[in-house]
Specification:
- By secondary structure, the protein is mainly alpha-helical.
- It is about 95% helix and about 0% strand.
- The protein is rod-shaped.
């Protein structure tokens, strides 16, 4: 059987493993799509600004 310090070490290992698992799930579900969506929106803004600048340059 486990001694008490081995039992505490095993519980610490399970706690760290569980925290890592849920952090990975959180990042996959929320952070990564947010990052990709923000990147896409910024790219669209840059394209619109470039088109607007080109259009204004042609008008003047």
């Amino acid at each position: 059987m486990f001694e008490f310090d081995q039992y505490l070490g095993f519980l610490a290992f399970l706690t760290i493993l569980t925290i890592g698992f849920w952090l990975m799930i959180f990042m996959i579900m929320f952070v990564i799509p947010y990052w990709i969506g923000g990147s896409f929106i910024e790219r669209m803004k840059e394209k619109r600004a470039a088109k607007k600048a080109k259009r204004e340059a042609l008008e003047h």
